[in-house]
């Protein structure tokens, strides 16, 4: 039996949110469905945190309320992404089985009282969770309103790391499967160092607090194990759903963005029937729409270019940042449609009705505390109308000529301790390059290093410290095909075991780049060094290195400091291709100048000619035609070139589109 499409049961784009009716008296439920219809909601995520309501004591079930809610939703035409109800164990379970509780690195047991108080590797919890999943599947698996399974919730969100005895056991098993023999593990971990050689797998531990830096390969393998054990939990629940309901699509909500570090979502994605993501903007970030764009482009990259589902974001403020700002007028719509522009075929929120009690009562919802006479509700209705008008966009794709590489394994490796500098956050460094393209008005894909790169004319792989043969071969292929490839400082340094590529840096990329570095010269915080780039005075921060040309030419040189006159940026012509190296971190304008050079070399144009500051433009296209999304992140009116039908208003656009401050538009372009 084949699996249905995840959105076969919804018309057009999906729209809705997490629905937690158990937090409200019955009287509210009819009102909920009525308002969902008013807003055009066609999909809700249900029963995510319902276990304790369904089964308040072991073996005592109350399904009636959930049956009733499902009937009401169905009658209202709302389809359901039904959860497995396993995201948080009920109090009876943690009380009777405290051995399922997670443990921190410092050995602190995390108790019931918040949520998600389970250890991912616990065989006991696995048994209870799969049994609960089976009950949900057996009870509701053939319900006509069931569109999609939602496994657990943000797996690993609060407990990216568990150091319980179960975890130690599971980690040892994982290592035995990875290495086969102790010799292989000792070799990979470099245990000749500091008397770390293991004589038995039983002596191997997770990276617990240690007197000084724990073994780096142990740490890296722990991250790999952690990603795998979370995926394994997902797969265990998925297997039950697949068995009971073979035709119902299955997903779980990822947390792709700059914040998440515990899971390799590129590795998980093929195990879902649709990639679903949760994204929240960063209150403190004046360019939060750029971080959103990066996260959405990475989600599409993880989904190998297929349309995906935005499972959660917020209508306005969240409750968990230090200062939770409300969204500006127009911002929620821009955020939602920017996800759609970047490949989402559905927009959902946490949550439908803002909670009255509990830790998330100050988190916005689609129905706010203020009720329906409110800007948030009017925005909710407005977005629903927009999404209905955008139905023709469904299934179309984003085509980019530029790829920026984001690599989860590298994230774990490059951020390890005892490195030349601690002054780096890999997601933020990659985001900075994405930002440079964003400001040049160029559409990019953010892809894993193993992605098919054959369609790209320009590929940028920032800070790719971990460079094994497979990564190097795939990236070298870009240059061999006559494309432009660029990498940056602290790249090509180690193999998959975090062992140095000998013979000078950037190790695995040195020949391709036509350079050789003997020593790194990281900068102190606040230290800056002058760089002459394309005849313009730029600056380097964070990092410099003493680079010697071995075939490459210097594109930029240091103008002061100890490296004065030495190359800061190099270009190596290889056949028709180019391999670039950026040996320092170039803030702002320096990055943009370099990006312009690469774009010109690769012959890539922006989405709209003459991009304007604060104006975002993205194109999706498919059988239904070509759709130009434009967002005005400024407060003033802007005019951009476009011709076609503006879908949100139905207006004709001939030559130029005028957008008010904060506005959004989607032009179905004339063929
Ligand atoms: C996550 C969770 C939701 C909710 C939101 C709040 O995305 O999945 O249950 O807690 O955060 O932003
Ligand atoms: C100390 C230790 C050495 C080495 C150096 C590194 O001197 O004795 O083993 O770790 O620090 O600076």
TrEMBL record:
<keyword id="KW-0326">Glycosidase</keyword>
<feature type="domain" description="Glycoside hydrolase family 42 N-terminal">
    <location>
        <begin position="18"/>
        <end position="389"/>
    </location>
</feature>
<dbReference type="InterPro" id="IPR013780">
    <property type="entry name" value="Glyco_hydro_b"/>
</dbReference>
<keyword id="KW-0378">Hydrolase</keyword>
<dbReference type="Pfam" id="PF02449">
    <property type="entry name" value="Glyco_hydro_42"/>
</dbReference>
<feature type="domain" description="Beta-galactosidase trimerisation">
    <location>
        <begin position="401"/>
        <end position="604"/>
    </location>
</feature>
<dbReference type="InterPro" id="IPR029062">
    <property type="entry name" value="Class_I_gatase-like"/>
</dbReference>
<feature type="domain" description="Beta-galactosidase C-terminal">
    <location>
        <begin position="614"/>
        <end position="667"/>
    </location>
</feature>
<dbReference type="InterPro" id="IPR017853">
    <property type="entry name" value="GH"/>
</dbReference>
<dbReference type="Pfam" id="PF08533">
    <property type="entry name" value="Glyco_hydro_42C"/>
</dbReference>
<dbReference type="InterPro" id="IPR013739">
    <property type="entry name" value="Beta_galactosidase_C"/>
</dbReference>
<comment type="similarity">
    <text>Belongs to the glycosyl hydrolase 42 family.</text>
</comment>
<dbReference type="InterPro" id="IPR013529">
    <property type="entry name" value="Glyco_hydro_42_N"/>
</dbReference>
<dbReference type="Pfam" id="PF08532">
    <property type="entry name" value="Glyco_hydro_42M"/>
</dbReference>
<protein>
    <recommendedName>
        <fullName>Beta-galactosidase</fullName>
        <ecNumber>3.2.1.23</ecNumber>
    </recommendedName>
</protein>
<dbReference type="InterPro" id="IPR013738">
    <property type="entry name" value="Beta_galactosidase_Trimer"/>
</dbReference>
<dbReference type="InterPro" id="IPR003476">
    <property type="entry name" value="Glyco_hydro_42"/>
</dbReference>
């Amino acid at each position: 039996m084949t699996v249905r499409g995840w959105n076969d049961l919804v018309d057009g784009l999906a729209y809705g949110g997490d629905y937690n009716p158990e937090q409200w008296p019955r009287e509210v439920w009819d009102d909920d469905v009525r308002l969902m219809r008013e807003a055009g909601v066609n999909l809700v995520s249900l029963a995510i945190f319902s276990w304790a309501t369904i089964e308040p004591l072991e073996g005592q079930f109350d399904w009636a309320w959930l049956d009733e809610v499902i009937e009401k939703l169905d009658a209202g035409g709302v389809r359901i992404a039904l959860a497995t109800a396993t995201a948080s164990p009920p109090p009876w379970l943690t009380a009777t089985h405290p051995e399922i509780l997670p443990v921190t690195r410092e050995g602190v047991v995390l108790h019931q009282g918040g949520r998600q108080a389970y250890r991912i590797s616990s065989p006991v919890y696995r048994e209870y969770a799969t049994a609960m999943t089976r009950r949900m599947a057996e009870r509701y698996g053939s319900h006509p309103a069931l569109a999609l399974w939602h496994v657990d919730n943000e797996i690993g969100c609060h407990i990216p790391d568990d150091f319980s005895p179960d975890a130690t056991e599971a980690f040892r098993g994982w290592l035995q499967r990875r290495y086969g023999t102790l010799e292989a593990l000792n070799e990979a971990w470099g245990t000749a160092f500091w008397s770390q050689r293991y004589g038995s797998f039983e002596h191997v531990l997770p990276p617990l607090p240690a007197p000084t830096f724990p073994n780096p390969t142990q740490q890296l393998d722990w991250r790999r194990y952690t990603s795998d054990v979370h995926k394994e939990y997902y797969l265990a629940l998925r297997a039950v759903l697949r068995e009971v309901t073979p035709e119902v699509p299955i997903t779980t909500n990822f947390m792709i963005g700059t914040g998440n570090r515990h899971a390799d979502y590129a590795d998980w994605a093929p195990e879902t029937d649709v990639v679903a993501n949760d994204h929240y903007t960063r209150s403190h970030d004046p360019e939060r729409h750029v971080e959103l764009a990066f996260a959405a482009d990475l989600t599409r990259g993880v989904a190998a270019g297929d349309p995906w589902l935005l499972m959660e974001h917020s209508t306005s403020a969240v409750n968990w940042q230090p200062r939770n700002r409300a969204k500006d007028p127009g911002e929620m719509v821009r955020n939602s449609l920017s996800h759609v522009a970047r490949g989402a075929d559905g927009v959902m929120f946490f949550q439908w009705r803002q909670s009255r009690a509990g830790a998330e009562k100050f988190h916005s919802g689609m129905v706010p505390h203020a009720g329906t006479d409110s800007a948030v509700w009017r925005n909710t209705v407005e977005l629903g109308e927009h999404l209905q008008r955008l139905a023709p966009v469904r299934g179309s794709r984003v085509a980019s000529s530029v790829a920026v590489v984001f690599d989860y394994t590298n994230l774990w490796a490059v951020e390890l301790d005892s490195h030349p500098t601690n002054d780096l956050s890999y997601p933020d460094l990659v985001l900075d390059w994405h930002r440079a393209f964003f400001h040049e008005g160029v559409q990019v894909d953010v892809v894993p290093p193993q992605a098919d790169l054959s369609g790209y004319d320009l590929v940028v792989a920032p800070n790719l410290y971990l460079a094994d043969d497979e990564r190097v071969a795939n990236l070298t292929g870009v240059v061999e095909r006559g494309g432009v490839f660029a990498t940056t400082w602290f790249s090509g340094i180690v193999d998959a075991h975090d062992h140095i590529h000998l013979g000078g840096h950037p190790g695995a990329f040195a020949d391709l780049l036509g350079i050789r570095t003997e020593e790194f010269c990281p900068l102190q915080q606040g230290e800056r060094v002058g760089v002459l780039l394309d005849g313009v005075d730029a600056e380097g921060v964070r990092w410099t290195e003493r680079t010697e040309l071995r075939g490459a030419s210097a594109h930029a040189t240091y103008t002061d400091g100890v490296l004065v006159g030495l190359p800061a940026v190099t270009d190596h012509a290889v056949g028709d291709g180019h391999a670039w190296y950026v040996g320092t971190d170039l803030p702002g304008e320096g990055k943009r100048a370099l990006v312009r050079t690469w774009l010109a070399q690769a012959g890539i144009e922006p989405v709209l000619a003459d991009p304007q500051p604060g104006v975002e433009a993205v194109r999706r296209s498919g059988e239904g035609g070509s759709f130009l999304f434009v967002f005005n992140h400024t407060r003033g009116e802007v005019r951009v070139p476009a011709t076609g039908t503006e879908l949100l208003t139905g207006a004709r656009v001939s030559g130029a589109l005028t957008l008010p401050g904060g506005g959004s538009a989607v032009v179905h372009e004339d063929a």
